[in-house]
Amino acid sequence: MQGTQRGEGVVGRIEFETVAAGVMAGLVMGLFEAIASVISGQSPLLPLRGAASIVLQQDAYGHNAPMIALVGGGVHFSIAVMYSFAFGVFNSQLPWFTRVAALRQAALGVVFGTLIWLLDFQVIGRIFYPWLLGQSQIVQWLLHAFTFGLPLGLLFSEREPPLRHGEKPER
Hints:
This protein is an all-alpha fold. It has one domain (10-159). 73% of the residues lie in helices and 0% in strands. Helix 2 packs across helix 3 (65-92). The longest helix has 30 residues, at 10-39.
């Protein structure tokens, strides 16, 4: 079908690109989580301990900092990749014009980050990990929305390839 954007591989490429963007957004969020911990007078390892506690429960607050950091980093990035993949699946259903519109993707990212916070802390956390609610939930919402969701949306829109000469975007 000449004259239109090729659909072959679009879905797989979009999820791959979003996962790559999710790893970068996960790095941004992790850095800001550590900064927020230090500002609040806590250890910069507190976010990694919180992530590790999903697997290690209360042992994540013990003395084996290297192992706790390793497990926490693994959990943090696993969750970031999982959610970024979901963001990519959602975005693969949107028209090209929406996928490349930075402002729209930024807004979608903030909404997506808010939904992640609602699900992770206000539903799953309240049921299975109540100790995670000891952190400021406003700060956690801001971190999820603006240091994960916002970068994810912006990175996603930036990674979407431009149309080739003579191509028209799918509708």
